């Protein structure tokens, strides 16, 4: 999968083709499964209601449900809640707290504070704390910074630097960019900061509108495809008001639950 992503392909997007009725389909009889952007959450979508209030501008807070896919049942993804993601944007700072619930009870929480800058929310500095419930010895604390040419990561016992070739952008700092609509005009090429790890040579491109099933009907959302070296192919589904309603990454996915 990483090799396909590194080549700049979009392995999760099926090629569209003409249907017998003169419209467009995504290559199969079931239009709601073929757009691979929703394939990991087909079992969850019938209970999902997109939010209709709030905006994702410079000042907002959002809560997402983490929805895991564990195989399939009855032709649909077998989905269950596995945690939460809380984000708060204020000025040039983004604070996140992500908790993943494990079946063995060893729940993991990662808290990150990013400071970003510029038109594309490029990383400036950040700090991370990771903990596991009832396992104090597993606590991890790291920090980092980016000077425009290299990324430096520090812990209590080491410091490492990594050269970058493109803009460095933290994953969650992408949300306001998607909300702004500017990525519809041209693909964004960048290096990804994922927690404290560097994923080079990433691309987000607009992939068009798709219709998805939701509670009580259907919704039409803009789909953005994110691929790149070392990254799981990701889809961001955004409504006409710029709210990032769904983020799908195969086994772990995000569904917007609150926005203020």
Describe the protein's architecture and organization.
The protein has 260 residues and is mainly beta. It has a domain at 85-205. Helix content is 5%, strand content 55%. The protein is built from two helices and 17 strands. The protein has helices at 2-6, 174-180, and strands at 17-18, 24-25, 60-73, 76-90, 93-100, 108-117, 122-132, 135-146, 150-154, 159-163, 168-170, 188-194, 197-214, 217-228, 234-238, 244-249, 252-259. The chain has a 15-stranded mixed sheet with strand order 10-9-8-7-6-5-4-3-17-16-15-14-13-12-11. Strands 1-2 form a two-stranded antiparallel ribbon. Strand 14 and strand 15 form a beta hairpin. The longest helix has 7 residues, at 174-180. The protein is globular and about 50 Å long. The two termini are 36 Å apart. Mean pLDDT is 88; it is low at 1-34.
Produce the secondary structure layout:
Layout: H1 2-6, E1 17-18, E2 24-25, E3 60-73, E4 76-90, E5 93-100, E6 108-117, E7 122-132, E8 135-146, E9 150-154, E10 159-163, E11 168-170, H2 174-180, E12 188-194, E13 197-214, E14 217-228, E15 234-238, E16 244-249, E17 252-259
Parallel strand pairs: 11-12
Antiparallel strand pairs: 1-2, 3-4, 3-17, 4-5, 5-6, 6-7, 7-8, 8-9, 9-10, 12-13, 13-14, 14-15, 15-16, 16-17
